Amino acid sequence: MAARPARGHVVLLSGGMDSATVLATAVRAGGPVHALTLHYGQRHARELAAARALARHFRVREHQVLRLPIGPILRSALTDPSRPLPRGWTRRSKGSIPPTYVPARNTIFLSIALGYAESRGLDTIWIGANAIDYSGYPDCRPEYLRAFERLARLATKTGVEGSTRFRVRAPLLRLTKAEIVRLGEKLGVPWGLTWSCYEGADRPCGRCDSCRWRAKGFREAGRPDPALAGPRPRSRRR
Amino acid sequence: MAARPARGHVVLLSGGMDSATVLATAVRAGGPVHALTLHYGQRHARELAAARALARHFRVREHQVLRLPIGPILRSALTDPSRPLPRGWTRRSKGSIPPTYVPARNTIFLSIALGYAESRGLDTIWIGANAIDYSGYPDCRPEYLRAFERLARLATKTGVEGSTRFRVRAPLLRLTKAEIVRLGEKLGVPWGLTWSCYEGADRPCGRCDSCRWRAKGFREAGRPDPALAGPRPRSRRR
Questions:
Q1: pLDDT at site B62
Q2: Which of B101, B116, B159 sits opposite A157 (nearest CB)?
Q3: Chain A residue with minimal CA distance to B159?
Q4: Verdict on whether the full-model pTM lies above 0.90
Q5: CA of B151, closest CA in chain A: separation in Å?
Q6: What CATH number is attached to the domain comprising B54?
Q7: Residue B153: inside a domain, yes or no?
């Protein structure tokens, strides 16, 4: 993927199937891999356990889990318990931004990953951003990610000195959910360890936007989702 | 300063004399003012009380104080208790970056301020960055701040939609410390409420880099520093 080998990787790892696939891709690229899990009061705190399990599975050199108390200052359906989570829609009109948008979320995440990367002498930041199909977030677009790379070179000591050329890798950027499933299978992602549901219950709700996109991905890839194996609660509908 | 009136302001307020002067400038500009204090384990936690006092003094609409647990992942003399704080030097060679540099600090701060601004419908972010005299940080340079503005327009819902044009204001960017003292005096900054020392003791140490720059500023502006009024501990040297 890269013209020259990376000095080392920081992977933004939420615990979902996308970031798990990104982690597997970074591991495959070679070099030291660090994982960074940033938690900001979003409802699916259940993902944290998934992130820890994935970091162990892929034997990352270091896994940092930080709780950012930014929920109260950022308004979003994902962080505000009084706002309902989106349900029952799977495709929105072209160009519209979903209600789960969190203001400046990826900029905050990438900034912290940048500081972490520079502190550890790493040069490549990996993020599960996706511009196709189910995203629609402004901070998941290629032009945004390139702008962040340019900023990173101006923002840092080693960037300004020229000793590090920070790069942002978003290997899922142009993949559909089904293609992500196929890529993850190829790389040996343990889907059973991942967690995608916006709700924090024992089992995925199957109804939230994230569950629906996940189900669509596995269905279109013609694969069963191991996270859904075993008996389901009777009250649950698909 | 601005060609059209701002919709509202977010001021990054540390509690030091610089951010206090920036807050006074934002208040003078007109429109709602919010203050955001981000604390990341740096040694001068004493600044938090100063930030709260300044926010009250200037009657901001909202003051958010967030503790970011990023100290362990960012290496710097300011966040690592095992590294000595710089002392006894007041001017470094041109272009060199001081040991108090915190990787990606301003990018992390501006990103959170951006999310806060968008969440509250505000468009102007104020920061006490300074490119003259006592700074030398890569993320205090004009080209960095302009790059962040460009990123902000790509990163956000309202930026992409064109309803908000986010701006970063750094009114101290080209001022010497003495000029900051004079500007602050003109705007009625209550210096006695501010805190600049890197140490968290009851009184400023007078020896750290921040104390020395502050003293130099007041001296060259021909003003007394009200924070130094009253009897001094005998052991203290200037």
A1: 96
A2: B101
A3: A138
A4: no
A5: 6
A6: 3.40.50.620
A7: yes
Q: At what angle do helices A177-186 and A17-29 cross, to 10 degrees?
A: 40
Distance from chain centroid for Cα A154 = 25
Share of chain A above pLDDT 90, in %: 63
pLDDT one-digit tens code per residue, A198-213 = 877 788 888 888 899 8
Q: Closest-CA residue in chain A for B101? A: A157
pLDDT tens, position by position, B119-138: 999 999 999 999 875 567 89
Domain ranges, residue A211: 9-228
Task: Give chain B's domain count.
Answer: 1
Number of neighbours of residue A178 by Cβ within 10 angstroms: 17
Residue type, A20: A
What one-letter code names the amino acid at B54? L
Which residues in chain A touch residue B162, judged by CB atoms under 8 angstroms apart? none
Beta bridge partners of B87: B208
> Are A138 and B157 spatial neighbours (Cβ–Cβ below 8 Å)?
yes
pLDDT at res. B235 = 44
Nearest to B136 by CA among B156, B106, B178: B106
Phi-psi region of B153 (alpha: psi -120 to 50; beta: other; left: phi over 0): alpha
pLDDT at B70: 92
